[in-house]
Amino acid sequence: MATAASWSCEPCSQRKKKTEASKWCTDCEESMCQTCTDCHLSMKATKRHHIIDLQVAHSCHSNPLTGIQFCEKHEGHPFEYFCKDHNAICCNECMSTKLHRSCKIHTIKTCSKNVKTSQNFKDVETEIDHAIETLTSISEDRIANTTSIKGNVEDVKKSIKRFKSNILQHLDTLEVAIFQDLDRMQEEMSIKLNDEKDQAETDKEVVSVYKKQIQFISNHGSDKQAFLFMHKLKMALHNLTNQQIGKIARMRALSIEHKIPEELLSCLSLGSVVPKDNLCTEKFKLHVEDFKFYQNFHLHKKVDMTAIDKQAFITGMAVSGDKLLLCNCDWNHHMPQVLVFKKSGEYLANIEVKGAPWDIAVLPRTDQAVVVLPNTNSIQFIDTLKQVSGREIKMAGSDEKRGIAATDDKIFVGGMDRIVYILDHDGNLMSTIFSRGEKFCYLLSVSNCDLVYSDFSSIHRIKLDGSEVYSYKSPNLRNPKKIATDQLGNLYVAGKDSHNIHRITPDGTFLDIVLTEVNGIHHPRAMYFDNSSNMLFISNQSGKELLIFNCT
């Protein structure tokens, strides 16, 4: 890579003149000599541009000022606007799309004024410090645990020797064998701990780069660049924090103990060495005020749905504002309807629809929802504010449609024909995806526009090209139904015939079973996580009961 001293003046190069550059315009992203710099600052269009020494421009790792002003989606178009509704930075091309027509829009010039002294900018710097502190703690803990295992091994060996003195001398050979097992286990644990320590160090290096970049842009960048970089960095820090919470939730404090056989005379070994681990999440204080790892689920209320409809069969649910919308999918009901409740569990009203509603999805940042009607092979829009139904749209194909999900600009409908139909918010068919799994039962849209669906036996995550990211299946999860997601992206799956709720990570790894029959779970079907109120809603007893849990 060229050093700062070897850079040529770009305006001079355009005139086929070779001059050594000494300055850098962060707005034009162009190197200039002193003469061209003086001209640059004298022109009306560029006199307010931000000029720094070329040496300074190339002193920061991965110069954060380079390329930050231009839209990744629309090449060559500079960022000019900030959409508060979507928390998105936009260029003129972005603003021409339907997505932002009714949004609250501000110019970046307005938003970035004095941003480097704002609390948001300071918060990002604090987040970096928190991340470095946490990753340092993880690394130090892994090192300390590795050391403690060595002492732990010595204690176990002494225990084995004491036990050995009470049994026959011919067990000496078994002593050697168990020591080998112990040493092997120590090595495996040490490798695992070192891997976790190395990963923490790697992540720490990434965040340290963020630290240098934010300090650099604070000292040398413009307000606009600081605002743009801050926005980009907040997303990166959020993803990093999300990853670390999942890792910490699975992190274990490893140790070894010696198990002594109860029947000494019939013993054919010196026992066994087994790993011990304990969750060590509390040791690490991640700065996640807005994102919680739920550990406790307290039953707030139980609602008997048959008191409202004797044939109640709640198969789908969603939250819109302060209202809970329940799909009462009684196939033989003469008046199919969506029931409207307060989130606290009080019945408010019902909305009549054209067919038995199986599931429902709310269109983000709107007062619109859409239900899927299997028995009429259609979907229907609902105005959640006025509590009235709207247009019905017939779907392609003859198979029943069950799963439904929505994003900022798309509606996804999953069918028993293993096809996902992608519609725009007006209900127009855009494209289709063919899945390799079984028939769709329920559908959920997650980050990166991936889809997660249940197919009566397992959970699958797929991309919009139909390729599978992972599948999740467990003998303790029978007949999986509705899927919900929390703020951290963890998935919650209702096991109808296993009478439990599984929690898995965004990458499909089992975390725990959060609710079982002990908590009153029996034939759960529909489920929804309302992250704004930290409440989990579950359709229980095959849709005849509503359970409301407070999550902490």
UniProtKB/TrEMBL annotation:
Residue ranges that the Swiss-Prot or TrEMBL entry lists as coiled coil: none
Gene3D superfamilies from the UniProt entry: Classic Zinc Finger (3.30.160.60), TolB, C-terminal domain (2.120.10.30)
Keywords: Metal-binding, Zinc, Zinc-finger
Domain B box-type positions: 12-54, 66-111
Molecular functions (GO terms): zinc ion binding
Keyword presence, Zinc-finger: yes
Protein name: B box-type domain-containing protein
Lineage, uppermost ranks: Eukaryota, Metazoa, Spiralia, Lophotrochozoa, Mollusca
